[in-house]
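Thread: Modeling a multi-component assembly for a lab meeting

Hi all, long-time lurker, first post. My supervisor asked me to bring a structural picture of a complex we are working on to next week's group meeting, and I have zero experience with this. I have the sequence lines for every component (1003 residues in total). Could someone generate the structure of the whole assembly? Inputs are pasted exactly as I received them:
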Amino acid sequence: MRRTMTQHLMIFAAGVVLAGTFMAAKSAVPPQGILPATVADYVHAVIEADRAIYTKHVVDRMQEKGVVAASENWESQNTLPLPAQFLIDSARMVAKKDRGIRYRLVSLWPIYERNGPATDFERGGLEAILKQPDKTYTGYVQSGDRRYFQAIYADIAVAQACIGCHNAHPNSPRRDFKLNDVMGGIVITVPIGP
Amino acid sequence: MRSRVGLRGKLISAMLLVGAVPLVVGMGMALVQGTQELHQMAGINFESLAAEAARTMDLVFSDELTRTSRIARAPLVVETLEAQYSRLRKRDEAALSAVENEARLQWDAGEATLLETVINSPVADFLKQQVARPEGETGEIIPASARAATRALFVTDVRGNVVASTTQHVPYTVRDTEWWRSAYDNGVGQPHIGNVTFDSQLGVYAFHLSLPIMDRIRYRATGVLHRVFDAREYLAPSLFPIRFGKTGHVMLLDSQGTVMACPILPTGSRLADTSLIGLVTTLQPGWVKADSDGHGGQGLSVIGFSALPGTSHLTRASTGATWHTFVWQAAEELSAPTHHFLWWLAGFSLVAMGLLGILGYVASGRIVTPIRYLQKAASLIGRGELTEPIAVKTGDELEQLADEMTRMNAQLERAFSGLTNTVEQKTQEVHTLQVVNQQILQSVPNPIILLDRDGQVEYLNRAAQRAFGVTPESEESRLLKDLLHVEGPVAQRLQAELDESQRREDATNYPMPMIQEEFQDPLVPTLPGDLPRRPELRVGDRLYEYQWFRIGTASGEPTRLGLVFRDITDERRLQEKVIQAEKFSGLSLLASGLKHELNNPLFGVMGLGEVIAEESNPQLIKELAKDVVAQAKRMADVIQELTGQALRESDDQQAMLDCNELVEEVLIGLRATKAGAGVQIRTELGRLPKIRIRTNELRQVFVNVLTNAVQAIRGNGVLEVRTETINGQISVKIHDSGCGIPSVYLPKVFDAFFTTKAQGEGRGLGLTIARRIVESLGGQIEIESQEGHGSTVSITLPVMQASECRRVS
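Re: Modeling a multi-component assembly
Sure thing. I ran the full set together rather than chain by chain. Output:
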């Protein structure tokens, strides 16, 4: 419980810092801009924390107590959304805010193809973090006439729910995940320039 | 005959009933339960079928989505749209609008240049190629139906304008359509699956698959790929092969009740029964029993349904609608097995009932035939004609019954023959009794009359006929009073007695005491003085006493009355004569006693008188005169004794006295006499209470009695005197062993002047006086005697008399 509170406080603090950062960036261009990598780190911390809380304190707990399970078709089956769906839907919500920053889940073994690596950069990044999970893979990419900073964070199987689903799903290309395996990554994209 | 048919009919109908009731109940239960279970089973089957079909369709749509999204991710398409996006971003809104309006007009007009750039661009070629190719990029097979059902595949840019298309039958700008907005989603992009709607340009019911075309890094949507399917053609290959029975099928419909594909209903139509929509479009799979089938049919239907879980997730996000499979079979076909079963059961029932009827006929025959035989035998027994044993060999209770009946018949025969003998014997006895009765009645010398209840004379015995002058012919219907020739008060008295007899009988049915008393023997001689005299009746010159009696009959029959008469004319005459004679004899005895007692002194007086008359010596005369007075005194004494005056005149005082003392005193006196010299006197004197009494009176009693006793002994003999107290009374018994008294004299011994002694020995007044005294004291004196063996005189005196006297004094 104490731990939970602490985590909440941390999330809150991170949120405040993040919000403050963006507001400062909008209101006036500071002589020394914040680094995109830092922004990505902040955002990743929040994403990670939110999903961890949801996974451990909602999904795992409810499933263990037999109250309600999590499943892919959670709407029709009256269950909880999977942690991955939680993240993806959160990302959609963030994207709809149109603040520029967007993120998504990618994997070398995606259940749905759309969640596979879109670019060579992403593929390289996923392979890199597979070897060094604790090292963020970053770089700049071009799309049309615009440039973006991308950071790829290793996504570790932290809960039984993650590997359970991926090892069992008929569409899953890989079914031998274990706890603490790198299952994929979170790609955070920050537009650079106007 | 009727009962025979009835029994067989009853048996058969009972068996049929026993068979039919369970059959009907069983059929009813089978129908209800069978229908219930059939529906249950069908429902569960339909539900699983619907779920199965839903999963299949989910896969179909999921595959389609994957394949189509590959087109959307194709580098050519992505790069083209990315470039288009960059181009559009650099131009201002007004310029773009103007260009778009012009292009839209050109497109609608079918301007060749524009069509060329859209339909024959590299991207359009790529799209056409995708539609035509049987294999995908990675070599997977693309179903022919998916290709054939694709009515349009086109790409729009971020402003919703068509960039490339496989056909010109698409709008130029789709910016305002729901599916474009949803798929573009303000640049975020999300797959969109639209509901089935009628596409007027393509002329078909179609559904849209719209996928965002993301930029190279999948940062934002740069366009939308649209694929328009002919709904029916696309879905038919997956859905329509799922058939069962003649009508069972699966259809797909959305949550608004629009039919997307159905082998029976046209695509795009709505479910006829809107109430059904809510029932079958739940997110959970299930089955329902509904009142309509959704295909225009009314009547109970079983419907299975299931949402497409994966696809519905998408459609909900796109349009809010969900897609559902709907599994259904016509009610007639569904219930066909039940009906078939029922028909089969009905047929079986008919056969079973027929068998039961035959069985009942045979079985009842087996029961009824011996019963019929038994019935005949019973009627033979009833007529007493059965001679042979009853031959029923069924080996069951009926055979036992037949044996019992045979035995019973034998016993009945025996009993009847015995009974006949007894009846004859009894009849003979009764006849004899009647004859005896008749003879007794006829030979009785007393007239006897029997009356019926109305007082009519019913019978007269011979004596009565003779007495009342009746011939046997004329005795019919005659009233009693006419028969007896009585009138007036006598007739009334008779009628009253008759009525009284009948009334008593009616009221209490208790015999009249007067009649019952002598009913047993009405001829018993009457005892004079003891009983009340019977009523008497004078008929003609004869006097009768008569007695009513009742003739008891068997219960229920009226009791009759009878009259028995006794002719007392002669008896009465004789009686009167006897009385007369007794009167005379007592008077003559008294007269002779008086003559005897008075003659002696009288003659003495007369003699003395003659002597005196002749005597001249005065001295002698004086002495003679004294003698005359003495003789006269003696005569006076006689008269006084006769009347009892002498005793009462004497100076006798009452005193407390012990009778024993008085007896002893008298006995002493007797021993001194000449008569008592040879008598042996024995006394046995008990303890007696003293009584108050006149001593001389009682002494007179004892003197008289004891003197009689001593004189009866005549010399040698025994005189016994015994006194005792019995029941509070003093009893004195004096017994002598003398000559006794002849029994003819016994009733007269207490009469005055009656004596058995020789002339001059006694005056015949001793016992008369003794009785008068004893009775005056309230006691009794009795005498018993046996001629030659002596006599016993018993005197009893009450003790109470003494105490009463004391109280009085």
